[in-house]
Model the fold of this input.
Amino acid sequence: MNAAALGQLLVGLAVAIVSAVASLGQSASSSIRLYQADSLWQAGAFAKALEVVEAGLQYEHDRAEWLWRRSRLRVEQGLRASEKAQQRQWYQAALADAQAAIALDSLNSRAYVAAAIAAGRLALVSHPQAKVEHARQIKAYIDRALFLDPQNDIAYHLRGRWYYEVATLSALERAIVKVVYGGLPRASLEQAAADFRQALTLKPRVVHYLELGRTLLRLKQPEAARRALERALALSPSEPNDSLYQAEAQALLRRLR
Done:
């Protein structure tokens, strides 16, 4: 089944369950609506998913679950914004949602993951000093997520990205880190590669293979990088941005030819 057909199927399933929700209690109704929101997100139907999430937030039940999901959707909106200022606004809103989810449920690993993702995206569109400030915040969120759920493959992926970004900071960013903050925790590309591999042992995802391949390229291991990137292309798209990740993997492979 191709990505478009899978997306249509997931949207159909998500919409089909709406009629069953009204007759259930609040807890069961919330669980079904959460599933519906996740299915719509997976299909890339972000506008419909946001409608479901906004409706869910009208009730008191499972507010932390709804908030981190809205954070995830706001990140998607930021990714698709054309102006950096718009992106920054979406990412700030996404981070606020994730932080609100944490305030409501401090044991929710996925809320910390959502916060790390939002802060990471915000760092990418911020000036160097703010980028460093976010780097410290991101690491704390990731560490907490992994403490709460050591099987969270996305958290390992995020820590790998954190190691990669810190290991490849520019000279200006390193100077700011040293003068203003006294430095960041040690980070290396080897640590990044190890975390991407750990993420893959927990769940094979296109994005895990992509970032492992990118890291191995920086480590000057072209054959290992090629294998990782080819595996990224071999997987069937199953998440909303997989086609974009595979296009990026294809572009990196062309550099190896």
About this structure: DSSP finds 14 helices and no strands in the chain. Residues 1-61 form one domain. The chain has three domains: 1-61, 64-201, 204-257. Confidence is low (pLDDT under 50) at residues 20-24.
